[in-house]
Amino acid sequence: MSLTISDLVAQVAGSLTAAGIEGAPREARLLVAHVTGVPTSRLTLEMGQAVNSEYQEKLLPLVARRMSREPLSHLLGRRAFYVHEFRVTADTLDPRPETETLVTEALREPFCRVLDLGTGTGAIAISLLAERPAARGIATDLSTAALDVAADNAAAIGVGDRLEFLQSDWFKTVEGRFDLIVSNPPYIALEEMDALAPELRHEPRFALTDEGDGLAAYRSICADVLSYLEPGGWLMVEIGWQQGREVADLFEAAGLIEVTVINDLDGRNRMVRGKKQH
After folding, report:
1. What are the distances in angstroms from CA 205 to CA 13, 18, 141, 196, 202?
2. What distance in Å separates the CA atoms of residue 48 and residue 10, rounded to the nearest whole number?
3. Contacts of 273 (CB under 8 A, 6+ apart)
4. Taking 90 as the threshold, does the pLDDT of residue 247 lie above it?
5. pLDDT tens for residues 126-161?
6. Higher-confidence position of 37 and 182
7. Dihedral of the CA atoms 188, 190, 192, 193 (nearest 10)?
8. Alpha helices in the chain (DSSP H)
9. Which residue ranges make up the annotated binding site?
10. Which of 55-59, 188-192, 238-242, 256-260 has the largest mean confidence?
11. pLDDT grade, residue 51 (50/70/90)?
12. Whose CA is closest to 4, among 42, 34, 49, 44?
């Protein structure tokens, strides 16, 4: 009896379910589509299609990696964010749906020059420039490996000619002023790290935590931000769900006005925005 796509999906889903992976059937479909080359949108129609056993062999190591809680995005090599797909690697923090709140809020304001501090995959800066064809930007990161991934994503999405990549510790090597500065910095406190989902242990630790109270990045950014914002320009940052008041206080102490804590779709603090006076 020949092996079918349906058989592969069932085998993978069974293994992932046994390992306690939430959403195992959905992930099984994505992994099978990835290995067989059948588009996910057509997988249901192709369930009865016979497949070579070599696909089963290719799936085995991927399933083993997922069962060890390596993120699905690392196995697929990509992650959907906003309206695009981004290449991801173990050198980058996965772009997550909650970060789309930051992109949505940023697009409410006019800007010609944007600075993304700690860009990772480039998801925030690239998404912004893709929606604003006249805008240009700079994306920074401490990791040259992350910058390489971000540059690949920018080229693939068509904004590579408008986005410069710069290795920098926050503002250290940045020059100029910007209408908009955005960042999704490491904001997880050291004491919270042990309670994280096991998948996060496969992502760059320095992109998750400052090894302290989770506020070090905001202190660094706020200390220098007025020197890099144009009058009337905005600083917008993602935050942890309990950090709204503390980060807003840092914004106000830095001299920013119209400081607001924005909630995500789950009603939890997700970002803070503030403006430089004209």
Report:
1. 30, 28, 14, 12, 8
2. 12
3. 105, 234, 235, 236, 237, 258, 259, 260, 262
4. yes
5. 999 999 999 999 999 999 999 999 999 999 999 999
6. 182
7. 90
8. 5-18, 24-36, 53-67, 72-76, 100-106, 123-131, 144-157, 216-224, 244-253
9. 118-122, 141, 170, 184-187
10. 256-260
11. confident
12. 49
What Rg value do the Cα atoms of the chain yield, rounded?
21
Q: How far is CA 117 from CA 73, 87, 171, 237, in A?
A: 23, 19, 8, 9
Annotated binding site for S-adenosyl-L-methionine: 118-122, 141, 170, 184
Binding-site positions for substrate read 184-187
Distance of CA 241 to the CA centre of its chain: 16
Task: Give the confidence band of 123 by pLDDT, cuts at 50, 70, 90.
Answer: very high
Residue corresponding to tokens 């980060």: 247
Q: Is the pLDDT of residue 1 over 70?
A: no
pLDDT for the residue numbered 40? 87
β 229-238/269-275 pair status: antiparallel
**Residue 118 confidence class, pLDDT cut points 50, 70, 90:** very high
- Taking the C-alpha atoms of residue 245 and residue 230, their distance in angstroms, rounded to an integer, is 25
**Residue type at 160?**
G
